[in-house]
């Protein structure tokens, strides 16, 4: 085999996994489809040493640094097929290419599905946001909204007042229970039960939201947790098991980041309900380290 490990996905998790393996002098192929989840964000925040950089710039520099190691091969392309092949794995790319390796690291990420509200999709990653720890500081001090689209939305609304004046829009779907109402009141969160039907503002800047009853409420940013699906079918093709996360399925992994398929490791947003650049990178490091250790153990078995 030309490669000992194939990493599918070239965002924070995949690049971090690759770095550990090439520093262990293993032959690694990294295949990147070039459509990272964070491509809609203007900057990555909260990532130590990279705060304020664009995600594209971070990944570009990561690939540059990886390319300095002699055992890495980086290819642009989409993996559309993966299967077990005896004691190894075979992957197939959209352009008809095929490669084989003893180990696979899945860093394939997730795709977001947003509520069907006019003006929301085009503001995603700018003034329609998923994570206050990633983007809250930049909209801090403004009028902020939390759009309820899952059972944990009330908990999210309790966090947001640290960044600004907060309104919780129940969307007539997720009414807070008595305990949640007490806590939201203690946090000075306003409850709005008329659903948001449109986001308003020029040049993708959010200025207000229109409600179903016709009122227009000024807002500078709205937080919403999208529903997620696997961005790639390869985990399912390989036979990996999934768990039900709060926003969508996640790949089941052990403490060593190995999936239920021996020899297949996974990292990043596809394995966790908590999503950030730092967490994705950290899980990629662990996946790379444990992937290397499994190769060592196989050689001495």
Search tags:
301 residues; alpha/beta; FAD/NAD(P)-binding domain; 5-stranded parallel sheet; 26% helix; 27% strand
Description of the structure:
By secondary structure, this protein is an alpha/beta fold. It has two domains: 3-112 and 227-299, 3-Layer(bba) Sandwich (FAD/NAD(P)-binding domain); 115-224, FAD/NAD(P)-binding domain, CATH 3.50.50. The protein has seven helices and 20 strands. The chain has helices spanning 12-23, 55-67, 132-139, 153-159, 178-186, 234-238, 277-300; strands spanning 5-8, 28-32, 72-76, 79-85, 88-93, 98-101, 103-106, 110-113, 128-129, 143-147, 165-169, 190-192, 196-200, 208-211, 216-218, 221-223, 227-230, 242-244, 249-251, 264-266. Strand 18 (242-244) and strand 19 form a beta hairpin. The chain is elongated and about 65 Å long. 45% of the residues are buried. The model has no long low-confidence stretch (mean pLDDT 95). Pfam families: Pyr_redox_2. GO terms for molecular function: oxidoreductase activity. It comes from Rhizobium sophorae. This is Thioredoxin reductase.
């Amino acid at each position: 085999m030309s490669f000992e490990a194939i990493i599918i996905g070239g965002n924070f998790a995949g690049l971090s996994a690759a770095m550990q393996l090439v520093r262990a002098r293993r032959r690694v192929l990294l295949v990147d489809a070039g459509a990272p989840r964070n491509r809609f964000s203007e900057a990555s925040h909260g990532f130590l040493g990279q705060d304020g950089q664009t995600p594209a710039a971070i990944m570009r520099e990561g690939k540059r640094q990886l390319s300095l190691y002699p055992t890495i091969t980086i290819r642009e392309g989409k993996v559309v097929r993966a299967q077990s092949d005896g004691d190894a794995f075979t992957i197939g790319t959209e352009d008809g290419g095929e490669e084989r390796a003893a180990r696979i690291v899945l860093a394939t990420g997730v795709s977001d599905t947003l509520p069907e509200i006019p003006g929301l999709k085009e503001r995603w990653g700018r003034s329609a946001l998923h994570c206050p720890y990633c983007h809250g500081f930049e909209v801090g001090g403004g009028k902020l909204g939390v759009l309820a689209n899952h059972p944990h939305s009330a908990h999210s609304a309790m966090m947001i007042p640290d960044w600004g004046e907060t309104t919780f829009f129940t969307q007539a779907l997720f009414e807070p229970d008595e305990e949640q109402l007490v806590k939201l009141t203690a946090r000075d969160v306003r409850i709005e039960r008329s659903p948001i039907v449109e986001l308003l503002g020029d040049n993708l800047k959010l200025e207000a939201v229109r409600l179903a009853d016709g009122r227009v409420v000024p807002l500078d940013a709205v937080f919403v947790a999208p529903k997620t699906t696997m961005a790639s079918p390869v985990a399912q093709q390989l036979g990996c098991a999934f768990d039900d996360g709060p926003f969508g399925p996640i790949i089941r992994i052990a403490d060593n980041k190995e999936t239920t398929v021996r020899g297949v490791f996974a990292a990043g947003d596809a394995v966790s309900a908590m999503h950030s650049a730092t967490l994705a990178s950290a899980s990629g490091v662990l996946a790379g380290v444990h992937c290397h250790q499994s190769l060592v153990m196989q050689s001495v078995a």
